[in-house]
Automatic annotation (TrEMBL), chains A, B:
Pfam families: MarR_2
BP-aspect Gene Ontology terms: response to stress
UniProt entry keywords in alphabetical sequence: DNA-binding, Transcription, Transcription regulation
InterPro entries documented for this protein: HTH_MarR-typ, MarR/SlyA-like, Tscrpt_reg_MarR-type_CS, WH-like_DNA-bd_sf, WH_DNA-bd_sf
Domain HTH marR-type, first and last residues per copy: 18-153
MF terms (GO), sorted A to Z: DNA binding; DNA-binding transcription factor activity
Protein name: MarR family protein
SMART domains: HTH_MARR (SM00347)
Amino acid sequence: MAEAPAPQGGSSLLFLTDEQLRKGIEAMFFAYRGFTADPDRILEGREMGRAHHRAIHFIHRSPGTTVSNLMALLGVTKQSLNRVLRALIAAGLVEARVGRRDRRERHLYLTREGAALERELSDAQRERMRAAYRTAGPVAVAGFRQVLEAMMDEESRRQYEALAGRGGQ
Amino acid sequence: MAEAPAPQGGSSLLFLTDEQLRKGIEAMFFAYRGFTADPDRILEGREMGRAHHRAIHFIHRSPGTTVSNLMALLGVTKQSLNRVLRALIAAGLVEARVGRRDRRERHLYLTREGAALERELSDAQRERMRAAYRTAGPVAVAGFRQVLEAMMDEESRRQYEALAGRGGQ
DNA sequence: CTTGGAATGTCAACAAGGCTGACGTATTGT
DNA sequence: ACAATACGTCAGCCTTGTTGACATTCCAAG
């Protein structure tokens, strides 16, 4: 199972065979299922879905972000996002404040209850991530992130790095 | 596996901080978007979606598989899968042969046209994967797969390994 | 000042693709 | 003969994406 590919004479490109690539593709498919399973389960009871989770996550990450920002980040239309936001606001999880400088904008914030749900969701997801990280070890984790970053398209990578730069590290 | 985690004083669990985990979570989100982008684009013109892609992929991987098998693999209901299969059969991409031993079963195969489409889809997806792998290098790729495997839930890991064992390597 | 264009956000209607429930049909095994 | 299995289908619902139409707000040109 995935041993380091023996630094023999040439550059040993055995890790680029179709077979290896296919395995990576299937690993992404099955892993993503696990990745979303816990939050999905939590939200099931609350009449919400994955779309709500994503919105909550990024509002938590960037408090005061506008609808347009969130739209670009999530890669959905404003109409689609709007439905989700309406539900979150109705449920008292998100607050939309009219912009002071530009009153067309709505700045989004989690309420106390919204923050609590965010905690619950991200705790569950982080727990699975933590277990996977611990099992695989720090070197594997570094590789994991490298490959994922290389897999993003240009636009996503920009967004990812903008978030990463802000959050810390 | 178990790489030595930087043998400084303590056990150096810095890679397990909430911040690192959050980055991993966001990396998964953005990378998965890239992962599915190319096939989605190809299928757009053909009145098909991601669901059809998944079915085609696994029928290609396991020619002759039954409807029940595919259901379990994809994690969807038979009604949901049936809609997809009906479309694929109507489009002449998939053939369903009545089982010889058990004539209740339908064994699924790609037709010549189905195989051609599968090629087109997997070429696109593999190409992105190959680029990411090449950029990140073999050590990173090994780590990538380790973390993904650790992230799957039990059932998915079983399925993943069953496929991997069959395909080669 | 006013007016038109651009940005922003909302409402309505529709499609894809999940789901459950109920039922029919062929086939198999007891 | 009968129960269980594998599959197909109809009907209806939900979530989450889409487009189109429209209201509000801002800004810049006349």
